Amino acid sequence: MWCLPTVRPNVSEMFKCSSSLRRFHSPMLKQATAARFSTTSSSPYLPPLFSVAPMMEWTDNHYRTLARIITKHAWLYTEMIAAQTLIHQQTNLTGLLLVLHQDRFLAFSPQQHPIVLQLGGSNVESLAKAAKLSHPYGYDEINLNCGCPSPKVAGHGCFGVTLMLNPKLVGEAMSAIADNTNVPVTVKCRIGVDDHDSYDELCDFVYKVSTLSPTRHFIVHSRKALLGGISPADNRRIPPLKYEYYYALARDFPDLKFTINGGITSVSKVNAALEKGAHGVMVGRAAYNNP
Ligand SMILES: Cc1cc2nc3c(=O)[nH]c(=O)nc-3n(C[C@H](O)[C@H](O)[C@H](O)COP(=O)(O)O)c2cc1C
């Protein structure tokens, strides 16, 4: 049995922390980025210290170009791309970085490194093929979306956040993706879905995915998803954030890395999460609305 911390993290304490932009240009962040690139089998895997979340129709090439002017070190995620789309579009994939006008699916300018490709899908073969198709572009990491509650995504079989209900499938998919790439593979998930919201079920998901595949890093949007008809936007607002689930995962799986996501809206909150022990922090809406 897994258990939550007996003392709930004191959120107001988390927010009492000096805010300083210097942190983002600090030698610590530079070192973390350099260390991550030079990871060998003998050195431990390091997750990005700070990243900008994947956001459909928001974190496109234009936004990422702007973001990279602002920050050299933040990790940038693509919008989610469905594995099936890449397969259908494979004749339009050039395999070259700089042909953005011809290849709007995978091409990006080299300045955007470090950059993560987020895939969506649940068919193991399609995800493997999509990972293979993305290989020539040189993404720094491949991430699987296990958090999207959109009925367009989650409503069509096992895709997005509904994947959390099938950890074995996610483990197999991650293993197949890893077999077709030489970069780290990661999962972005919620803390639960509908009534499947116990800490035990979340641990079961993390345990199965990490034992069935080389996934060592989970990005945790720390609220559950409600599939019963609320909009994707409300699903990012209504279910309450439960950061205690995130910190408990970081405590209970010492061999894995976890990035915290959800409701982090300022530099001081980023720093507070890092000081509290988060391995990495991902910011979504705030990084778009106030770059
Ligand atoms: C417009 C929009 C589009 C999003 N698209 C995706 C997506 O493609 N993949 C994904 O994993 N999450 C997506 N998300 C969720 C964000 O990545 C993030 O988990 C969520 O916004 C919570 O973080 P925040 O409170 O810092 O915004 C999207 C969020 C927004 C606002």
Automatic annotation (TrEMBL):
Residues bound to FMN: P54, M55, M56, Q118, K188, H221, N261, G262, G263, G284, R285
Swiss-Prot/TrEMBL cofactor(s): FMN
Domain DUS-like FMN-binding, residue spans: 52-291
Catalytic activity, EC: 1.3.1.-
Keyword Oxidoreductase listed: yes
UniProt superkingdom: Eukaryota
Active site per the UniProt annotation: C148
One annotated GO molecular function: flavin adenine dinucleotide binding
Family: Belongs to the dus family.
Described purpose of this protein according to its UniProt entry: Catalyzes the synthesis of dihydrouridine, a modified base found in the D-loop of most tRNAs.
Designated name of the protein: tRNA-dihydrouridine synthase
